[in-house]
Amino acid sequence: MPKASLALTAVLFCWLQLCKAQTFSDYIFVASNNGLVYTIHFWEDGAQFSLSEASRHDGCGASPTWLTLRTSGGLWCLDEGLLSAQASANRFTLSLDGNLAHAERINISAGPVQSVEIDNGRSLAIACYGGEFPIQGGVTTLVTSVNGSIEGGKFLQLPPLSSPGPKSAQTVARAHGTTLDPSGRFLIVPDLGADMVRVFSVQNGTGSIKFENQVKMLDGSGPRHAVFWRHPNATYSPSPAYLYVVSEFASTITVFKAVYTATSLALEYTGQTLSTLGNYSDSASLAAAAEIAISPDKRFLVVSNRNDTSFVSPPSDSLAVFKICPSDGSLEFRQLARAGGRWPRHFDINTAGDRVLVALQRDSKIVILSRDNDNGNIGSLVATLDIETTDTSGKDTGVNAAIWMRTPQA
């Protein structure tokens, strides 16, 4: 073959490979308060992007609030039970094209708001917020069989308050989050009602948890969610781990060091508490921090701020980016970015780290934002899609959560 033809063939091959690398297809799941769980198709090819509804399912009850992918395949969906007065956990099977099939439902305690798999994926720990006084919050654990079906559930109620907290929501204990530690042996539960972060040990093989200890947060801060970090190049022991707790009422991040012994985990305050708005404090009194996550490369931490309206034209709440210091787990504020709209209750960073999916509750839409893996900054709007969230009464109920399916196109 002539050299010119060889060169042309090489260029064509590289161009085809580049196009293949640029083409990406994925599915997104969205939980809406109107009783529907949506499967959304996201496609991108170079500078072209699209979001479109692939299917919808009404099997998660009246108020789907949280979604958790199962490591063994499928999806958990929590129904907060706001309209039916009966909360539930729902298991779905999942096809490769993102279609959901409802497998089973189990009624659980009031107000489930977050869940995480424990016991190597055999059990699910659910933070139950509780209801109107005197319905107290706690943790529900579900045990599944080898084939994935629910074998049973247990509810552990949090201790009652000795006196109400300073915020109106703090009349009873209110579990608002469940986070598994890096060893898989301990469960962290932020108690928004008591301003406590509670530590439980996971009783593997039983689906149970056991209270170990707790740490007090600032009165009226309202700890909501938490996330662990450990240096990605470090082994579990004796490398230290750190816990970051985002507080809803104070809009702060509090940093704890995880102190392990052979049988327990304690949280030691590092002395660092930062505003979730970074250096921009004008909207601090109105903001209500919501979600917290660590980037896939473990170098940055991101939190969402609801109702801060830090950006005026067009109006938008914010996502804040912090760099994690690898030597001591401390945080350094880097950026306050547009969330793409109002009330970013939930967000999810894709596996590649270059896209951020945001559920905008009060705008009833999802947006996808670009993200720079090198400096951690969140950038421009990539794609947006309005979500139908109107219930049977005509009320616009909003979007609660959105997650990536994480199955790239072959």
Automatic annotation (TrEMBL):
The keyword Signal applies. Pfam families: Lactonase. It comes from the Eukaryota. SUPFAM superfamilies: Nitrous oxide reductase, N-terminal domain, YWTD domain. Coiled coil: none annotated. One of its GO terms (molecular function) is 6-phosphogluconolactonase activity. InterPro entries: Cycloisomerase_2, Lactonase_7-beta_prop, N2O_reductase_N, WD40/YVTN_repeat-like_dom_sf. Residues 1-21 form the signal peptide. Keywords: Signal. Belongs to the cycloisomerase 2 family. This is 6-phosphogluconolactonase. The lineage of its organism: Eukaryota, Fungi, Dikarya, Ascomycota, Pezizomycotina.
